[in-house]
Write a structure and sequence with these properties.
Oligomer: single chain
Strand order of the largest sheet: 4-2-5-10
Structural class: alpha/beta
Shape: globular
Number of helices: 8
Order of helices and strands: EHHHEEHEEHEHEHHEEEE
Radius of gyration: 19 Å
Amino acid sequence: MKTIHTDEIIPVVERLCMEANYFLGDDMVAALKSAAAAEENPAGADILRRLVENAEIARSEEVPMCQDTGMAIIFAEVGQDLHVEGTGLTEAINQGVRQGYAKGYLRKSVVKDPTLNRVNTGDNTPAIIHYDIVPGDELKITLASKGFGSENMGGIKMCKPSEGLDGVINFVVDTVDKAGGNPCPPIVVGVGVGGDLEKCAILAKKALLRSVGEHNPDLEWSRVEDDILERINKLGIGPQGLGGTQTALAVFIETYPTHIAGMPVAVNINCHSARHKEAVLKGRDA
């Protein structure tokens, strides 16, 4: 049995909060550059070049690439042979978020109650945390700073099995079409298919953690990803909704077995500031 103390976890989460907001992934920067070269609308191409410039300034100056520094979404893979000591893993993660958003001068955007008491918590907590128990004795933390301009444009549909693959594709494309320029395209589209209502939504969010250029390992679903991407880019929404051929940079699909009577589909959209970073912490001998 390996152990890790929450005092080791807090500074890692703090660092991830800042790095996610300062440093756009190399895959996204490369995708933006490729999109700028391919964009047929001159205004759209200019926007894409400016987004690359913005990412480069954020990296060099270590400042947020977007004013909406998002809600902290955490995917934590906890090794079954790892014992966490200290204040508790959830509290440690939230403390790391508090410190990261304060130290990094990141906007705090979380309100205490969704309707009755929309008072800012002042520290961007609580984070949204998804736990998964996995083999091993390590702790893997993936943090995504999710802005709500794009989050608000997602959707979920409890499709009938009779709608088949066409039903899935049509729902995804229609969701992006209705979103228009609101999620600040070019976008990355995460899709969850299967499970139940909440499982497919989590799958769609988790899909956004992939790198641009990475496909579903199932060849048939990989082809569906390419098909949906092509259809989305034919909508003509374009960068920032001003028209063009580069509305989306990638479509990622994750699937899960489901009930014979259902076919849940969820869509989660990321803006061009597709921010996520990860760290792996190793336990020590008890």
